[in-house]
Each structure stands twice: as structure tokens, then as C-alpha cells.
Design brief:
Elements lengths: L1 H11 L1 H30 L12 E5 L2 E10 L2 E10 L6 E2 L2 H6 L4 E7 L2 E6 L12 E6 L8 E6 L7 E5 H7 L6 E6 L4 E11 L7 E6 L1 H8 L4 E2 L1 E6 L5 H11 L5 E5 L3 H5 L1 H39 L1 H9 L4 H41 L12 H22 L1 H5 L5 H6 L7 H21 L5 H39 L3 H12 L1 H39 L4 E5 L6 H7 L5 E12 L2 E8 L12 E4 L8 E5 H7 L6 E5 L5 E10 L2 H4 L2 E4 H5 L9 E5 L4 H7 L6 E4 L1 H43 L2 H9 L4 H39 L8 H26 L4 H6 L3
Parallel strand pairs: 7-12, 9-11, 18-23, 20-22
Antiparallel strand pairs: 1-14, 1-15, 2-3, 4-13, 5-14, 6-7, 6-10, 8-11, 9-12, 10-11, 16-24, 16-25, 17-18, 17-24, 19-22, 20-23, 21-22
């Protein structure tokens, strides 16, 4: 019976449930889209290209491991954790001989993969069409396989074979000359042949093939190989060969991959992107869910308030509180099911589009294929149903508890004061948000502070949702006198703010959340980036800086500038792990370092920085309990363990990374040993330096200020990924603002009609609506700005040590203006529609 009545109510009150349906549908779409990203990170396929013709691939372990053993109550628990390293780990070439003896192995092919960027007249990267260029030895062409379509294999050191894709784009042919920037100085090679892969499976890379001797020189890892491909003999099962290979490699760190496992071995960036995508999808999904719950509860509260008279009448004719709650719950489940299914289906193309945008922004490589299954759909529908049911239960608490004799009186006028339970819950959330802000002020790493930052905004906005009626009445008391001076519209707006505080509070909440969340998203990265750039700018003593348009500045360019009087400090960057924790690190040339670099040393001396020592930031020193003379065990970028002595502790870790080592130590253990920048201290002019490095394509000599601007552009590019990631959440919140405003205005048809019958004109009613909207906007702006300022200040204290977040006035004004536009449009359009009906008809119409 109750189910039939709920279904009939939804069918005959479509307009009343439309706002809740839209909010739930948008929430389901957002959860589905984030769920597909999360699933792509967990299960996304990385298809192989280079090893397409190689069923078995042997590679080095790309992780660092830690095993802990705990003894508790006579039981032993062993936990094993692994974290990926930043660079490619290499194998000993001697394993090739061992593997060739394994029964069932027909061919064992060692592979070398290294940086090899073709430099064409059209510019770096344009000739490859956005594909990553890799260098290989021609002996490993069979791994794909590549076969010559014209010309001859490379035999001499200056011979080169390029693939058909590069030849077509750059219009190259055998006999032409091509300059290649690899791990060494640029070198010009003679193209001896053009090769093409079998099939069309190569879509994300360009291959350049060198002679074996030249490839080994450029790879710069003597006695090591990137991977080893194994082709089984005729009649040998791949699984049997894999097992035999694993047995032969027992006792080494090498691992055997077959099938889809070969892709992560080939595309290390895609394998690393999985973790980033899991983190990003989880953060977006979690924030989306919290925002959705907050918005949906507000929407249902407004929907129940619109039906107050109807529900009060049911109580008056003997409906029990349980029946009212059951009715609203079943209505919510019906709306939630329809909205959840529609939103989940809409979320699939949204997730695909979102993945495409992340690929375009460079946050996710194209080799990580977008994965979709039914799990995000089920999760979105389930979350929508639970959220709708919970929102209905929360919204029905007061109407279900009042006595039948009081029901119609309750429906006629809004309660003067919110329930004590609501006030108490609001104060608890306010205290929780305050605690989160306090915790944020002591967090000093970005991965730890970012989730707390957005959680604090949502929790504080939730406290605003619960304390909203009190805040609206307080605002009405403050704004009452100024509003009365604006005429009849202002007096009516003041009366509505006081008499309908709960309804107005339902509009204040999403606006507060929108302004607070948007300001936080837009100003978190500038606050961090500004502090990092300021530290880097203050710590750079160089007169000039070498930068490169391509993969980096060759070591020979730096050597060209070094003299008895001039210093050239090469800077190469990487990421290392101490235990399982990740730290940003750099390698610097130590000779004359004090003339080009000053990280504000607070203990020890940079003069002690050698191949066996390390300088650490104050943050790393605090976390790892280090001081000058301490021993630090770490894992370099390619998985090589190192034990170093701490030589110095410096303050400017935000600008220069947490660990600084000797350049040669770091360069030997990274995929790209070219310097990111070269700091030059000299009396020579910019023109003289430019002439000295003219033979290095793409290398420029710029002032430190210009280098700082280039760094700012790179930081901005990284920030765009975060802006885009949170953009959908903000878009959903904006939709919720308009939705809530439209619901709030559309329920007031009878009120507008009575005002018209009492003598008010359409213009006066619309002016009243505009005044209300601007009053609500002022309150929401104050609350949202206050929340954002508190959170950003705490973030700035924790991350930069300064209570001065970076806020761009023009951007802030734009945010408020956009929120104001949403408020005015969401009020004016429904208001005009509501005023179209004749006053007499609207005033006497049945609900």
C-alpha cells in the first residue's frame, strides 16, 4: 500500500521531485566517471608494442620492497609492501647467457632502450608527432619485429635506421643526414635504411636503430641491458617456458612477463600513471561523494519543506511517524533509482572524455587504456540509492515527529528556531572543521595536506548547512536596516529572510560550498608554486642559466663554459626513495657550487658535498631524524641502493627538493642524464655564452628571471591538471546552486500571487527576488571566503611556513561574480515563470 502511494505521489508530483532527480543524476554521473578513472588505475590494460613478437620478456624489478614481521600473542604476521621506483632498472647482460641455456628457448635477444630525440628543422618533437622517441640496437629489431623496407642495416657508428613513421613525417630517405640528441652530445648520423613494423600496432613511440657498439655507448650502462626478449622454440608452450625462465632466474631480482604483463615493462610511465590515476580518481570520487551527500540532503530538505502542508495533513488524518518516514524513504528510492541509472549511463561517456583530457594534458599516458566495467555503474547506483534514502530520512525527522494536532499549524508557518539536535550537530561539525584546519597547519607534504584541505572545506560547509537558519537570521538582522532603505522590495526581502530562514539557508549552503571550494582549488597551487619559485629565485646566484627546448642540456655544453674563472653547475632531477617514502632529489656539479647556488644552509657545509655525501632539506632532516654526519640509506632512481653521509642541512627544500647529491652520482642512475638547467657564474656576456653553445641545438642562454618564468609555466601546466580534476566537482556544485535556487523560487507561486493581489507589481516582486538573491550571495560570499581563507592560511603555514596564501584579486572577483550570476539567473528565470500565472488563479490553486 505504501509503495503504491509513493509511486503515485512521484508520478503526480514530477515537478516537485525534478530538483532532487537532477541533483542525484549529476551525482551518479560524477561518481561513475571517477569510478572509471579509479578502475583504469587499478586494472587498466597497458598493451605492448615493442615486444609484440616476443612472448616472454625478462626485466629488472621496478619496485623497492619492505617486509615487516610482527609477533603478537604467539602469532607471527608478515607484511610485504612494494613501491615503484622513478627510473628504469637495468639487468646484467650476463643473464643472456644463462637464459640461452634454458630448454625451449629458441632465441634470446638483449634489448637496449634509451633517450634518442631526432632534431629536425621543424623543431624538437614535431617530427615525431607527439610520439616518444627511443633508441635501440638494430640487433633487437626482431622483438617487434621491424624489417627494412629500404636501405641497409646500421653497421658503422654514424649509421642510423629510422622507422617509417618518422621518415614520412620528416620526409627523410636513405642517404639523408639526421641529428639526434641522445644521452650524450648531439651527433649527426647518416640514414642507411628505413624500417617498418609488422602490422599497425606501433602507435605511441618512434624507434631509431643504431649499430650495436653505438647503442651501447649511448645507453651508457656498460654490461647492462634494459630487458631480454625470449622467443620459444617450435612446439614449446609459453607458460612452460615462463616457468622454466623463472626457475633459471631464481636468486636474482629479474622478473618474467608474458601476455599483458609485457606492457608495463615497456611503458614505465604508464605503469607509474596507474598509481597517480588511483590517487586522483579516489580523491575526486571521495570529494564528489561528500559534496553530493551535502547537496542532495539540502535538496531533499527543500523538497520536503515544499510538501510540508501535504505531509502535515497526512499526520492530521492519523498517519504514524513511521509511515511518513517510510513514505518519504520509498519516494526517495524511486527517484534515486531512476536518477542513479540515468546518471550512471551518462557517467560512462563523461569518464571516457575525462580520461581523454588527462591524456591531452599529459597527466596520463595514452598507453594506459581506459577500462570500463559494470562496477562503477553499480557503485554509482548504490551510492545514489543510499544517499537519497539517507537524505529523505534526515529531512523527514521533524515532520514525522510532530503531533497530529500541531501538524497544520506547523505547515502554516516556519519554526522559529532550528531543533537543538541540528544546532548541536552543526557545532560538532564546526569543531571538526576547526580541528582539520589546525591539523592542516602542521602538515608539511603535499600528498598529506591535499586531501585534508578539501575535506576541511566540505566539513565546514556542512556546518554552514546545519547552522544556516541561524546565520540567515543573523544576516537579516545586520542587513535589515540597509535593505529597508531600498524601498518596498527591500522590506519584503528582509521579511522573507527572517520568516523563511530555513528555505534561504538551503540556498546559502551550495553557494558557500561553491565559493569556498572554487577559491581553495584555484589558490592552493599558486600558494605552493609561489613559495617554491621564491625559494628557487633567492637561492640562485648564477649570472646566466642554460635551458633547452629538447630533453635537456648536454654535459659537453656545460664543459664548454667551464674555465678557471667561470663556473657551470649542471642540475639533473630525479626521485629517490628512503625506505618506501618518496623524495624529490637533484644532482649538482660540486665544483664552485657556492658561486651559483645558495639553498640557505643551516647546518654543515656544501663544501663537504661529494660522491659519498648528501645535503638534505630541513623537512627531510626532521622526518628522517638526520643531522650532519648522519648516515642515510636510500634507493636511487633506477633501484640502485646507496649509503651516503649527510654533509649539510638547508632551509629552501621547497624550491630545490629534499635531497641534493653530486651530479655524476645521480646522472648515472636516471633515464635522462641531460641537465634540466645549467647555472653559470661568469663575467662573459649573454652573446658570448650563446656563441659558445651555438652548436648544441635547442640550448638557450637566459637570465635567471627568464628561467624563473619558464619554471612558472611548467608549474602552471601541472596545476591545470588539478584544476581540471576538480572542475567537474565545481561544475556539479554550480548545477546544484541553480537547481536549489530554482526549487526555492518555484514553490513560491502562491506567495507571489498574494503579493500581487495585495497591490505589488511584477517589477516589485522581481526586485524583491533580486534583493533576496544578493543578500544570500553576500552571506554565502562571506562564509565561503572565510572558509577558503582559513583553509588556505593553514595550508600555507604547513607547506611554506608563512601565513600568507597567494590570492589573485582578479580571479577572486571573477569567482564571486560567477557565483552572483548563477544566483541571479537561478532566481530571475524561475521567478518570471512563476509570475506568468494570473494572481487569482495561482492564489486559489490546489497544491
Amino acid at each position: 500500500m505504501m509503495h503504491r502511494y509513493a509511486l503515485r505521489t512521484v508520478r503526480h508530483r514530477k515537478g516537485g521531485f525534478l530538483g532532487a532527480f537532477l541533483a542525484l543524476m549529476c551525482a551518479a554521473a560524477l561518481i561513475t566517471a571517477c569510478g572509471t578513472l579509479l578502475e583504469t588505475g587499478l586494472r587498466g590494460t597497458i598493451g605492448t608494442e615493442r615486444y609484440a613478437a616476443t612472448p616472454v620478456v625478462v626485466s629488472a624489478d621496478q619496485n623497492v620492497h619492505r617486509t615487516t614481521v610482527k609477533h603478537k600473542k604467539g602469532k607471527t604476521k608478515t607484511k610485504h609492501k612494494a613501491k615503484p621506483i622513478a627510473e628504469r632498472a637495468w639487468l646484467s647482460e650476463n643473464l643472456t647467457t644463462r637464459l640461452s641455456r634454458v630448454p625451449g628457448a629458441d632465441r634470446v635477444i638483449p634489448e637496449l632502450t634509451f633517450l634518442a630525440e631526432p632534431l629536425t628543422p621543424t623543431g624538437t618533437g614535431t617530427s615525431t608527432g607527439g610520439r616518444t622517441a627511443y633508441g635501440h640496437a638494430w640487433d633487437s629489431a626482431a622483438l617487434t619485429p621491424y624489417a627494412l623496407t629500404t636501405g641497409t642495416p646500421p653497421r658503422a657508428q654514424d649509421d642510423l635506421v629510422i622507422d617509417r613513421y618518422l621518415a614520412d613525417r620528416a620526409r627523410l630517405k636513405p642517404g639523408d643526414r639526421l641529428t639526434v640528441q641522445s644521452t650524450q652530445s648531439p651527433r649527426t648520423y647518416r640514414i642507411t635504411g628505413i624500417a617498418a613494423p609488422t602490422g599497425d600496432g606501433i602507435r605511441h613511440q618512434t624507434s631509431l636503430f643504431f649499430s650495436t657498439a653505438e647503442a651501447r655507448r649511448l645507453a651508457a650502462h656498460p654490461g647492462q641491458v634494459t630487458a631480454i626478449g625470449v622467443v620459444p622454440a617450435a612446439g614449446t608452450d609459453t607458460a612452460d617456458l615462463e616457468a622454466a625462465m623463472a626457475k633459471a632466474l631464481r636468486g636474482t631480482t629479474a622478473q618474467v612477463s608474458t601476455g599483458d604483463e609485457r606492457g608495463p615493462v615497456e611503458f614505465l610511465d604508464a605503469a607509474a600513471a596507474r598509481i597517480k590515476l588511483v590517487s586522483m580518481g579516489g580523491a575526486m570520487g571521495g570529494t564528489s561523494l561528500l559534496v553530493a551527500v551535502l547537496v542532495v540532503v539540502g535538496t531533499f530538505a527543500l523538497s520536503v519543506q515544499q510538501r510540508h502542508r501535504e505531509l502535515a495533513l497526512l499526520r492530521a488524518i492519523a498517519a504514524t511517524p513511521g509511515q511518513i518516514r517510510k513514505l518519504l524513504g520509498r519516494e526517495a528510492l524511486l527517484v534515486g533509482a531512476a536518477a542513479g541509472i540515468a546518471g550512471a549511463l551518462a557517467g560512462l561517456p563523461l569518464g571516457s572524455w575525462l580520461h581523454g583530457r588527462f591524456v591531452a594534458l599529459g597527466a596520463v599516458p595514452a598507453t594506459l587504456q581506459h577500462t570500463v566495467s559494470v562496477f562503477p555503474l553499480f557503485a554509482a547506483v548504490a551510492a545514489t540509492l543510499i544517499g537519497a534514502w539517507a537524505a529523505a530520512r534526515v529531512s523527514s525527522r521533524r515532520i514525522a515527529r510532530i503531533r497530529p494536532a500541531e501538524a497544520l499549524a506547523e505547515a502554516a508557518a516556519e519554526r522559529g528556531r532550528p531543533a537543538w539536535g541540528r544546532i548541536l550537530a552543526g557545532l560538532v561539525l564546526l569543531a571538526g572543521g576547526t580541528v582539520l584546519v589546525a591539523v592542516l597547519s602542521v602538515l608539511r607534504t603535499e600528498p598529506a595536506s591535499t586531501p585534508v584541505t578539501f575535506l576541511a572545506v566540505v566539513v565546514l560547509a556542512s556546518s554552514v548547512a546545519l547552522l544556516g537558519p541561524l546565520l540567515v537570521r543573523a544576516a537579516a538582522a545586520v542587513l535589515g536596516s540597509p535593505l529597508r532603505l531600498t524601498g518596498p522590495g527591500g522590506r519584503l526581502a528582509t521579511a522573507n529572510l527572517r520568516g523563511n530562514a530555513t528555505r534561504m539557508a538551503s540556498v546559502v549552503t551550495p553557494l558557500t560550498l561553491l565559493i569556498g571550494m572554487t577559491c581553495t582549488v584555484l589558490f592552493v597551487q599558486p600558494t605552493l608554486g609561489h613559495a617554491a619559485r621564491a625559494q628557487a629565485r633567492e637561492g640562485t646566484r648564477a649570472d646566466w642559466v642554460l635551458t633547452a627546448e629538447g630533453p635537456g642540456v648536454p654535459a659537453q655544453a656545460a664543459r664548454q663554459l667551464r674555465t678557471d674563472r667561470d663556473v657551470a653547475t649542471e642540475v639533473v632531477r630525479t626521485t629517490v626513495r628512503v625506505g618506501l617514502d618518496k623524495y624529490a632529489a637533484q644532482g649538482v656539479s660540486t665544483a664552485g657550487l657556492a658561486r651559483t647556488w645558495d639553498p640557505d644552509v643551516t647546518a654543515g657545509s656544501l663544501a663537504e658535498l661529494t660522491h659519498n655525501t648528501v645535503a638534505v632539506s630541513e623537512l627531510a632532516a626532521d622526518q628522517l631524524h638526520l643531522k650532519p654526519g648522519s648516515t642515510l640509506k636510500l634507493t636511487l632512481g633506477d633501484g640502485t641502493p646507496a649509503t651516503l653521509t649527510v654533509a649539510a642541512v638547508y632551509a629552501k627544500g621547497l624550491g630545490f627538493g629534499d635531497l641534493t647529491m653530486a651530479h655524476d652520482l645521480v646522472a648515472r642512475h636516471v633515464d635522462n642524464p641531460l641537465a634540466a638547467t645549467v647555472l653559470v657564474s661568469t663575467a662573459r656576456s649573454q652573446e658570448e655564452l650563446a656563441a659558445a653553445v651555438r652548436k648544441f641545438p635547442g640550448v638557450r642562454v637566459v637570465p635567471p628571471a627568464t628561467a624563473d618564468s619558464l619554471q612558472a609555466e611548467r608549474l602552471q601546466a601541472n596545476a591545470e591538471v588539478n584544476y581540471f580534476a576538480m572542475g567537474l566537482v565545481l561544475a556539479f556544485t554550480a548545477i546544484a546552486v541553480v537547481n536549489t535556487l530554482a526549487m526555492s523560487v518555484s514553490e513560491r507561486v502562491r506567495e507571489f500571487a498574494l503579493l500581487r493581489l495585495a497591490g505589488a507589481t511584477r517589477r516589485q516582486v522581481l526586485r524583491m527576488l533580486r534583493t533576496e538573491a544578493l543578500s544570500v550571495l553576500l552571506l554565502a560570499t562571506t562564509l565561503g571566503s572565510g572558509i577558503a581563507l582559513a583553509v588556505l592560511t593553514a595550508f600555507s603555514i604547513g607547506m611554506t611556513g608563512s601565513a600568507a596564501p597567494v590570492v589573485t584579486p582578479l580571479v577572486y572577483v571573477t569567482v564571486v561574480a560567477a557565483a552572483g550570476l548563477l544566483a541571479l539567473v537561478g532566481t530571475a528565470l524561475p521567478g518570471r515563470v512563476a509570475l506568468k500565472a494570473r494572481p487569482v488563479t495561482a492564489a486559489t490553486a490546489r497544491e
